[in-house]
Hints:
heterodimer, A: alpha+beta, ten-stranded mixed β-sheet, two-stranded antiparallel ribbon, 12 strands, 18% strand, B: alpha/beta, eight-stranded mixed β-sheet, 20 strands, 48% helix, globular
Amino acid sequence: MEAYIYDHVRTPRGKGRPDGALHEISSVEMATQLLKALQSRNNLDTALLDDVIIGMAQPVGEQGGVLARAAVLQAGYAQTVAGQQIHRFCATGLDAVSLIAAQVHAGMIDAGIGGGVESMSRTVMGYDSGAWTSDPAVAFGNYYAPQGIGADIIATLDGYTREDVDGFAVESQRKAAHAWEQGYFQRSIVPVTDVLGEVILDRDEHMRPGTTVESLAKLKPAFEGYGKAGFEAVGKAKYPELEEINYVHHGGNSSGIVDGSGLVLVGSKAFGEKAGLKPRGRIRSYANIGSEPTIMLTAPTAVSRKALKAGGMTEKDIDLWELNEAFASVVMRFQRDLDIPDDRINVNGGAIAMGHPLGATGAMILGTVLDELERRDAATGLITLCAANGLGTAAIIERV
Amino acid sequence: MKTMQLQKADAGVAILTLNAEGSMNVVNDAFIADMESATKQIAEDDGITGVILTSAKSSFMAGADLKQLVNGFGTLTVKEAYAFSKRATDMHRAIEKSGKPWVAAINGLALGGGFELALACHRRILVDDAKVQVGLPEVNVGLLPGSGGTVRLGLIAGMKTALDLLLSGRSVGPAEALKLKIVDEVVSADTLIDAAKAWLATGPDPVKPWDVKGWTPPQKKGLTVPEDSTAYMMAAGGLAKVGYNQPAPLAILNCVFQGLQLPFDKALAVEGKYFAKLLTDPVARNIIRTTFISKQAAEKGARRPEGFEKFAAKKVGVLGAGMMGAGIAYVSANAGIEVILIDRDTATAQKGKDYASKVLGKLIEKGKTTQDKADAVLARITPTDDFALLDGCDLVVEAVFEDTGIKAETTRKAEAVLPDHAVFASNTSTLPISQLAQASQRPDQFIGLHFFSPVERMGLVEVIMGKQTSKATLAKGLDYIAQLRKTPIVVNDSRGFYTSRVFQMLIHEGAAMLAEGVPPAVIENAAKAVGMPVGPLALLDELTLDLPLKIVDQAIAEEGDAYTPPAGVAVMRRMKDEIGRSSRKAGGAFYDYPEGGKKHLWKGLADHFPVKAGWDIEEIKQRYLYAQAMETARCLEENVLETPQDADLGAIYGWGFPAWTGGTISYIDTIGIDKFVQESDRLAQLYGPRFLPSAWLRDKAARGEDFYTPASETTVKEPVPA
Lengths: 400, 722
């Protein structure tokens, strides 16, 4: 049984702040508008769908419960469509798609929608904490340190200077601006509308196209405070080869805080036939992995190899690589590990420029890769994300 | 009741006065039994409407009897320890729920169990005396404030203040105690009891907030409150600065975390369980035994031979006004002793005295002494080049250049003037005392008093007995150290004595690792990870490579082929002779010292000592501890050391061996001698014979014999509070 991708949509990403365009749009409303768009673009008989999995990195408050089910009902989908919530930190959005695909592969379902949503302006980071960060009995003995510390440890161990990571950020901005200018994202963007039905946002709001290494040089390192409060000692306990941590990351070379949602429609061949849809690609393999949790962000290398192995492929078989730009050093380490040339990875920029709506990002960047494969007429793409707690996910898609 | 008296005063007020035998009140079995019966009596007596709890001593209560706590180690199961903790918890709970208001009239120091007792009362009134401190210092002895200390402090002072006080163990004076709301009122000593009576006269409610029906714990919402969740995240991260060797800070944080979420009695139970775990953990035993019991015993004369009249030096000579001489002169003058400070000319001697002015100046700045007192100290130091002024000295400390010839000449010149009874002490850190004593006309009065730098801050003095040093001289030397309020250990003469000899193991182990390809940052971080204050390479930079190399050269000159050079010699010689980097003073050795910047490991090390993969941080940590512990065992075998207490005190206070181990010998006992020997054999295979256990140690292991035995325990008559 194959799992095909029939369509995908995403919202533009709004600044994740009270003055961001999407701040007045609730999480469930973002997901609802995307579900409606998927239905109308494809003239979809929603009764053909079995399940909708929508994840988020903060399943609390308005994002708590099973948001997917609420969105399904709110969007007017058939009430037989089930809903599910998943949480695997930043890996969530991609993992939700993989889990829909896995159910199709297993013959458990015919079709479903996977993806994620995150209103970072409405569900502020820290609302969902958990034992790993905050129960002393767990956090201390497991050498928990905030993500930024991990990103700076990677930079220190690999010798990336402030100029290196800022240079990476400038490239992300340049590529994203170019992609928007050329309309590469147009096909999958669903403008978000307000209560009046007026478009409130139709373009990623977080980008700063004019960014230069010089302008970034003015920003202060963001994570030194955490380091000095004790997390540097945590890092050194785990990485005794560190004499000092070189604090190079800041808001300008880390993923942006934004609101947004992304969904992917996946189904079997039979579903496509029933729905009268043509598959745009298929999901060839997927994998999850855990890696060293203190540095936290290095799983993409191992999980990508795992996904390649599961797909019976090697690095050479991948045309386009997409790793969520959580922090500049994360992508730089990955690129170095797998020896990926600059023109094959994150070719249209990433979360440093456009933002990272935590649980939604995975679904968004899968769509970005599929669009770009079509534009280039290339065949295969590997999408991967690092996630908190040392988790990582990857999926390989190919055009059909 | 032996530890307290209950009196009835007017208007239904009962005064319960803590008044144990001895100089202070401490928590022990007798106290708990008395308090239980007093509380019962009070609760049942309808004539009593309120209670004032105070003390007849100058202090309120100094804490638990650590001696009793430490004696339970090894025999107490964790369940018995919990039962022990629960009894004290219930005692406080009975006060709290007696139905009568209790007010603690805290007339003096209230620490640990003493302040926990006050926290159980319904009101705390503290005497307004800047010298009086209250607090919960248990973290410093590897324990937590049991019997409700963490729970009540959290509820009374809030999470942030409670964590600050509990994790630092710091105590506070009246003004801060009031500000932090851990006491309710601060009044002058003469109005303390009246203030307590006045409060009782208001007819206060004897029900604590947490015993009111419907009360909810302040953090009942747990981690769903982002601010609380972040605060615990930061607190857990902050613990890493203390390191990963001590279980108490984490246990305390867990107690506060649970204590603010749970119903009161459940919180007390959880706290009691964590307390029981700590009490049965060797770390608490180790810290308490060495840093409290053995230390106080040493200071009170545990090693002083009996039968000699108490000696008090009135006038001492200090020969050599360099860094050590200047420090010794200062601490002596500070102890009220007249000091003749001699160097080759008066100007040089004056420089030594200037050091005392500098130290005193800083103390005045911090408000720790007054100009008058400082002037008096300085007036006791006479800088001179005239040996004749040594006339009338009871003791001299020689601190001239480490050269046998120079020392011999100094000895002769001094003895020509000194009175017959005077003790001649050498502050040498390397030269054998018996050899130096050869220059003396009265070698029985010749002794080694090895001070540590900086003298005014380092509490340890290593006393070295030469072959001919008499017991009378030892008694005098120890009495002089007691005058200085320092901690003595007594060792027998040998190369490097005890502390320098074992300290060499640390720095050589670190240097040797460089040649093995261990990254220099790992060498440093591993040492800090086991709890050493500074890494061995940084130590070597400060010490200079010349010093350890000189020790090696001297040993080779004296012993020839019989001498096995220590592990790091090759690296040290390469650094000094081939690479030309020998110390911080000479511009940097293992470290670079950029002007205006922070020092950092010298980048060139990677070229000379290429890093190799495969190092194991746990094994490196083990090597540091084992190398030092093994050499200490040899010192005991060779009778350089006579007691495990001397070994442990010297290790912790001499060169900063981590306190959680209890010292080098406690460390072996903690691991278990069997395992220590086994692991040492493994390390010897991998890294060399310095780890190889001797036949003596193997025999000991085969007999399953600990270094500390009931017979070797220090006897302390007075309770040791904390």
